[in-house]
Amino acid sequence: MIQVQTFRFNPFGENTYVLFDETKECVIIDPGCHVYEERSALKNYIHDQGLKVIHLLNTHAHIDHVLGNEFIKRTYGVKLHLHKEDLPLLLNAGSRAEYYGFPTYEESTVDVFIEEGDVITFGKSALEVIFVPGHAPGHVAFLNKAEKICVSGDVLFKGSIGRTDFPLCSFEDLENSIRTKLYTLEDDMVVYPGHGETTTIGFEKIYNPFIRL
């Protein structure tokens, strides 16, 4: 059974996730840890739980979600997984880091390009990659249907949706992603967003003021 541990990091309040099962193998999704205290909190949790980091996954490459990529790669010797359409955002992350006041940001490189339908395995568990562009051109979500887990990144939030006023964003693509990829999931699917509280697909279909069915 998959356990999900959430950390809220950096001034943007970004959600970093550690997913693991009874084998103690784990994946880290969107490490937003930047300062020493944040990185120590994540590292100490992994150590205290006796976890073995298998994969590093990015839902997308906006700066608040990639601040800790190189730290994770260096610390655990794992490969970074990202959709190829988000590579321009990752390559531009250094300039965004300077703009938003992250002077010690370390650039990272992609090791594995992922796409819709790929399956990421760890321990006895697996996450399916679904392509949900709009907030970012190469945005993906990670899904385990059996255990009702959807790590959605910045596509769908509790009562809100991802911003589309950044470069390379598209409201039309975001709306299509939510309607055709997320709202088609079961109502009791738990959504773990890139910011804020968890929610469910059923709740958002009824109450989300931006996109309802």
Structure write-up:
By secondary structure, the chain is of the alpha/beta class. The chain is built from seven helices and 14 strands. It has a six-stranded mixed sheet with strand order 1-2-3-4-5-6, with helices on one face. It has a six-stranded mixed sheet with strand order 7-8-9-10-13-14. It has a two-stranded antiparallel sheet with strand order 11-12. The longest helix is centred in the first third of the chain and has 13 residues, at 36-48. The two termini are 31 Å apart. The model has no long low-confidence stretch (mean pLDDT 97).
Q: What is the CA–CA distance across the termini?
A: 31 Å
Structural class estimated from helices and strands: alpha/beta
Radius of gyration: 16 Å
Number of strands: 14
Quickly list its features.
213 residues, alpha/beta, 6-stranded mixed beta sheet, 14 strands, 27% helix
Give a quick precis of the structure.
This protein has 213 residues and is of the alpha/beta class. The protein has 7 helices and 14 strands.
